[in-house]
Amino acid sequence: MPLGVYxxxxxxxxxLLAKGILPNDMLGASAIMVLYGFTCAEIGxxxxxxxxxxxxxxxxxxxxxxxxxxxxxxxxxxxxxxTFMNQTNFLYVFIACIVVGSICSMNRQVLIKAFxxxxxxxxxxxxxxxxxxxxxxxxxxxxxxxxxxxxxxxxMAGGVGEGxxxxxxxxxxxxxxxxxxxFAEVLPIVMIGSLVAIIFSGMLKHIGEKxxxxxxxxxxxxxxxxxxxxxxxxxxxKAKAELKIDLAQMSVTGILAFAxxxxxxxxxxxxxxxxxxxMLLAVVIAKMLGVIPNxxxxxxxxxxxxxxxxxxxxxxxxxxxxxxPWLNLVAVFTNPxxxxxxxxxxxxxxxxxxxxxxxxxxxPVEAAMVTACNSGQGGTGDIAILTAGNRLELxxxxxxxxxxGGAATVTIAIAILRMIx
Length: 421
Prior knowledge:
By secondary structure, the protein is mainly α. The chain is 80% helix and 0% strand.
């Protein structure tokens, strides 16, 4: 952000706060999120070591959470952002636009092969991580029951809204406990697991820069037997770079994203499949069948770039302020046994993703990042993890890994708990 624009926004926002007249609406919340977002991101990008492990994303998400706790952010600003984040479901708008935009602009051949291959490292990582997490927790005295149901399962449940919440409701129905109490217990686990995955993603990015033979620079598949397909992808990327932004095409793609998500809401009412999954499957199938016109593909590229550049960091600030209580994070941070289990679980997911992906002709850095997203805060975690690794173009793969992997984890955990209770 140019310094002149930043200073103008800073002066106006604090003048409004000083007079107590900051609008409690989208405009007021957006101004706060942009101001704090780019400030925190700039700090994270300039700190030694931290900048190499996703400092921009970590600071944009968790520093605002601490600032709310320490009362460094005015209450009026917190209220404006919290109201906006909780009442508008803007996160789903973001997910819809970035997923549809990204998939529409992808190379069809690469998309098909990558989707077919990514499930194996995901499944291998989830199974191995569950075994390692339970083993470590048992050795530390937490017990297999506590470790799996309250640490390992929440980490890989697919986030908060579609992971921790249904998990807590399922546990509540079986155990007879308050779902709010259970939710409060598993929520910080999800958050810390996502933070650990963000850090590992930043480390993977650094490894990819230092050892380029392990990185595909955002591409999941390796070269070699798929040179022809990769050449097509390179040609497509070159065409995108030369493509002029067409606002009409971008708008149409955005409307398509909204329509697909709302269609997902309708399907969810019929069969219970989460709306984001329905949206994702619909656009993937359409892309694989080759029925998406060129105008939508071009608009998808423009929409994706706009969302990544202009929206991501401010959105992370909103998540930090409205959805990430600092005391919940501290409660887990101060329990070393929980931390050890969380780190071991996420690390296992990353390591298995690296080696299984490599064995399947994937770039290890990208394969590990995609599987790491199974340890994040759902769509929020996917964005943060991939942004830390500078691989946001992998979001469609991460969404499938997170949503389907999370749904499977929740279903299995509740089924096992019902069997043993």
